[in-house]
């Protein structure tokens, strides 16, 4: 297992590249506003260096999920956190994700949740569902709300660098989790292909993740 300093340097390089690509292409989403008491609320954390909003991976994921859940109302919430390239904001992001879920759950007893994140945003999700990481600590979703989380979908999760996956380390969320890590991705596969980390939004991963999440949502009724 390579030391944290090594892969944090890789993440920093990837984040800077993602930021440049996002700004240049003009595809960053503005922060999403969750509708009142929707059937499904998607809570997604963007990756390092991305502009505020759902990001280059969260935006196509949410769009695909809406298509898969026709007949249900689907709202989305972009986790409000710094997503800094120094990798120091995942804990604060987890707290924001957790507080959003708690708030909506209290106001909307029938709303189900889909959680997700990309790159550092995946770490935000890890922490929020109670998985310890080396990228900080934050508030976690109360266990009594776990049944209302229909699915957890993450892309380029740094947790994999430590030989861990949500599916294997989380008894509560593992059975309803889906993780995407491209071959060569420096953030989750200890590789050297930065491009592999930047393609989840258009290589079919977000589409497949949305299909998985939709199945889990429908299974809850």
- Helicity level, as a percent range? 25-40%
What number of domains? Answer: 1
Query: What's the level 1 CATH class?
Result: Alpha Beta
Largest sheet: 5 strands, parallel
Rounded average pLDDT: 88
Share in β-strands: 5-15%
Stretches with pLDDT under 50, minimum 5 residues? 1-35
Q: Tell me, briefly, the overall form.
A: globular
Question: What is the H level of CATH, i.e. the homologous superfamily?
Answer: Alpha/Beta hydrolase fold, catalytic domain
Structural class call reads alpha/beta
Instruction: Tell me the CATH architecture.
Output: 3-Layer(aba) Sandwich
Number of E-state strands? 5
Number of helices: 7
Q: Helix and strand succession? A: HEHEHEHEHEHH
Compute the CA-based radius of gyration.
Answer: 16 Å
The span between the termini is 42 Å
Strand order within the widest sheet? 2-1-3-4-5
Could you please describe the fold and organization of this structure?
- By secondary structure, the protein is an alpha/beta fold.
- It has one domain: 3-Layer(aba) Sandwich (Rossmann fold).
- It is 39% helix and 13% strand.
- The protein contains seven helices and five strands, in the order αβαβαβαβαβαα.
- It has helices spanning 4-25, 55-68, 90-107, 120-128, 166-169, 194-197, 205-219; strands spanning 40-45, 74-78, 112-118, 149-155, 177-180.
- The protein has a five-stranded parallel β-sheet, sandwiched between helices.
- Strand 1, helix 2 and strand 2 (74-78) form a beta-alpha-beta unit.
- The longest helix is centred in the N-terminal third of the chain and has 22 residues, at 4-25.
- The radius of gyration is 16 Å and the shape is globular.
- The termini are far apart.
- The relative contact order is 0.16.
- Residues 1-35 have low confidence and may be disordered.
């Amino acid at each position: 297992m390579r030391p944290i300093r090594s892969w944090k340097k890789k993440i920093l390089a990837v984040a800077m590249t993602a930021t440049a690509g996002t700004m240049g292409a003009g595809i960053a989403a503005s922060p999403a506003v969750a509708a009142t008491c929707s059937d499904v609320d998607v809570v997604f954390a963007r990756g390092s260096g991305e502009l505020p909003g759902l990001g280059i991976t969260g935006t196509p994921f949410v769009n695909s999920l809406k298509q898969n859940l026709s007949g249900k109302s689907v709202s989305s919430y972009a986790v409000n956190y710094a997503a800094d390239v120094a990798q120091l904001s995942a804990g604060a992001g987890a707290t924001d994700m957790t507080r959003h879920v708690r708030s909506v759950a209290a106001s909307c007893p029938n709303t189900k949740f889909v959680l997700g994140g990309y790159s550092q945003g995946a770490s935000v999700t890890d922490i929020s569902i109670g998985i310890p990481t080396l990228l900080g600590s934050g508030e976690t979703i109360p266990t009594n709300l776990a049944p209302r989380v229909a699915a957890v979908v993450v892309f380029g999760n740094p947790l994999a660098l430590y030989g861990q996956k949500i599916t294997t380390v989380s008894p509560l969320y593992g059975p309803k989790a889906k993780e995407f890590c491209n071959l060569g991705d420096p953030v989750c596969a200890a590789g050297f292909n930065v491009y592999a980390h930047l393609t989840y939004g258009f290589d079919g991963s977000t589409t497949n993740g949305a299909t998985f999440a939709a199945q889990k949502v429908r299974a809850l009724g």
